[in-house]
Amino acid sequence: MAKSKFEYVKQFESEDKCLPNCWIVVRIDGKSFHRFSDVHHFVKPNDDRALNLMTKAAQCVMEEYKDIVLSYGQSDEYSFVFKKNTSVFNRRGSKIMSNIVSYFSSCYVFYWSRFFNVQPLQYPPAFDSRVVLYPSDKNLRDYLSWRQADCHINNLYNTCFWKLVQDKGFTPAQSQERLKGTMSSDKNELLYQEFNTNYNNLPDVYRKGSILLPSKEKPVESKPMNSTYPNTKEPHRGSVSFSNSLDHGTKMNPKIDVLHVDLIGEKFWEEHSNILTSR
Predict the structure, then answer these.
(1) What is the pTM of this model?
(2) Are 133 and 82 spatial neighbours (Cβ–Cβ below 8 Å)?
(3) 10 Å Cβ neighbour count for 56?
(4) How confident is the model at residue 210 (pLDDT cuts 50, 70, 90)?
(5) Which of 107, 122, 137, 205 has CB 3.0 to 4.6 Å from 57, enough for a Cys bridge?
(6) 206 Cβ contact partners less than 8 Å away, ≥ 6 residues apart
(7) Could you give the CA distance from residue 266 to residue 209 in angstroms, rounded to a whole number?
(8) Taking the CB of residue 32, how many other CB atoms lie within 10 A of it?
(9) pLDDT in tens, 186-200
């Protein structure tokens, strides 16, 4: 940057450097996505196209920022976990946050047509973001457990809500009143008794969300893709790998594994012990 007498104004910039030896988590969240989902005719309670598009955008972010060791997503949100000793953007919180959310938003729009095909984008989506620091491994695990528990609670409620509306003809207000004050056990019973639905048999992606991890396999060659994204229902399986970031031409991209498993218990962390030891 050229020197000038006006350069003194740089003194007013806040350094906002993240504390050292802390997990840096960036969480992005869709802004006014209730309206956005209605305008774009999302299938209720879960739209595979929308979930897969969110995961695709998150995968692109992970390919761009190699210090992200894990991402977790559900509904219209994603959390990106940077390794403790990352030096990305000199650990400046505002730079990290703004770059992650802007790139995620760009990828979401860029890949929209590959998931929604004939459904045009009616207006630009927006995402907010925040940076949170977690000093201990337990803090980080508890944060991720909180987000996955939130996924289960919201999905159970929404599944019941939309079953009542779509299958029983309830109005949204009637459905809300019917579920008022109910516990998880009550909702499970309602689904089983009135709709012959075992909640535990619903796809894992709905109940547990999506966990993205850098694959242990070798990077794959990325080539420009055509306008049709193949088999968007694939992530319903236990795990799947996505590759291909934005089409800048042929290059080597890391593979990203997508899991729909429990991360609250010990099994996940025992099988992926490298996450907490990432330095």
Answers:
(1) 0.87
(2) no
(3) 24
(4) very high
(5) 107
(6) 45, 46, 155, 159
(7) 17
(8) 10
(9) 999 999 999 999 999
Q: How far apart are CA 269 and CA 77, in angstroms?
A: 22
Report the alpha-carbon angle 267-213-70, nearest 5: 85
Q: What is the C-alpha to C-alpha distance for residues 93 and 98, in angstroms, rounded to an integer?
A: 8
Q: Which of 77, 100, 72 is nearest to 31 (CA)?
A: 77
Over residues 207-212, the mean pLDDT reads 98
Neighbours of 263 (CB within 10 A): 20
**What are the DSSP calls for 80-144, one per residue?**
EEE-TT--GGGGBHHHHHHHHHHHHHHHHHHTHHHHHTTS---S---EEEEEEEE-SHHHHHHHH
- Positions of E strands within 117-253: 127-134, 210-214, 220-222, 239-242, 251-253
Q: Tokens standing for 1?
A: 């940057």
Dihedrals φ, ψ of 277, to 5°?
-100, 5
Identity of residue 51: L
* 116 and 40 Cβ atoms separated by less than 8 Å: yes
